[in-house]
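Researcher: Please generate the 3D structure of the following complex. Treat every line as part of one assembly.
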Amino acid sequence: MNNAIELSGVGWKAGKSFALHDVSLRVPVGSIYGFLGPNGSGKTTTIRMFMGMMKPDHGTISVFGRPVPRDMKQILARVGYVPERPHVYPALTVGEQVRVHASFYELWDRGWCNELMDRLGLDPGQKIARMSKGETGKLLILLALSQRPDLLVLDEPTDGLDPVVRRDVLSAVLDYVSEKSATVFISSHLVHELERICDWVGVMDHGRLVAELPMQHFKNGIKRLRVSGAPETASDVPFTILSRHRDNGSGSVETWIVRDWEAPMRYYFDGVGATVRDVIDLDLEEGFVELLRASRPQPKNGS
Amino acid sequence: MYRSMLFLHWKQIRHALVLMIMASFGLPLLAVGGLGTPPGLESASLEAYRFVAGFQTWLAAFPALAALTGTALALSAWNWDHQVNHVYALSLPMTRWEYTLQKMLAGMTLALLPAAAMWVGAHLATASISLPVGLQAYPNELAVRFLAAIVVSYAALFAMAAGTVKTTLAVAGVIFGFIFFGAVANDVLAGYYAYFERVHVVAAFIEWIVEGPGPFGVFAGSWTLIDV
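Model: Done. Output below.
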């Protein structure tokens, strides 16, 4: 078993408004997988699919090699989950919520939980209803980590948190991962947040997985090229062209946004009688935006 | 796990449940409180008649309190789950039927509290009065019937409240639709067929549900604490 999570051709339709289209993704065991996408792109729906909360119309899902939803009980015993919206009961205190949650997990680590509670500055006697968003976020992380999970599923865990709390939460996750070698699946629309911690990245848009690649490729492989004398149609290109357009007022110079770029590929242009004038690195956010732009249907001229 | 479910349910309903426990305890005392031996009564049979008649004015309150308690327990059982779209429950390492069963059992356990209060209250009530000749007290039977009625109303509404708001509204709509349109249709049909003048279909159906053989019969049986 090389993949902690595996989705194959998963589709789901919610009326006319939203659908997942043949989503296939693989999360390698031990990886930190960043799941990027704008709001409403299908990130949470995909998570709910492999968490067994929703049933796909078609396709297969497995977690740790076990089929979903058949083996959900065994799967969920190994999964720590932080949902998009807090799911803790506001009438309880932190201590009560911890005790309630602990009763469902055999591997619950009380010592680690107490240590983490101190580190995150959570008061066991505090009522959840009176906690700030940041404190609630810390509590959710505390609950997920104290289960000692093999897989952490974090759905926008730092959304709306201030930078200090965000750093506390992410460092707690990273400490746990380095100690336990757990797999982390973290969804976010904050590109820079994932850039620092993830080694794999999947990009969702409009219910489709538009890219899945190692973070290193994502960071280094998306470039903006300025090309002069480019052929009308590019064939047998060794990289993926995300977009190309002619620069205004600069004659035959075009700007190409490409993926999977490596320096020796420059020679491709010599073969087609074109010249690469510049190769410009895109930061992750620019790359992300270009990737989304390329995956969306282009508006027709004049429309 | 069961203890956690019980704790969560208790947290949801504790304020309402304390009121219901107090009402369950106080109702038998209230029912016999206005009794005692009225002055000037010479005949023992008249005294017994007055005694029973006095108690009977409170009779409807017993099944009503049981139904109210069962309803409150059922609605509170799913309240939090609905608020968080069942995400917490579905992320726990247990099957859906295990979760539902444990939640159901937790509610039934809580139903024991008002039933126990009723039992204590009924015993105190009967011990506090001297019963006229020919009358007997049934505090144990009353408490058991009270518990059974809570459980029946809890079970029926627990199943209904487990669904989405849409499902619950659909089921409630069908029931109320049947009662409303059934009543109207019966009146229309009564103009053409004499049979529908004699028999009101909806009333007969409700009577069949409550008084016929079945779990709802517990509401229609004898709720008397004191009887001959």
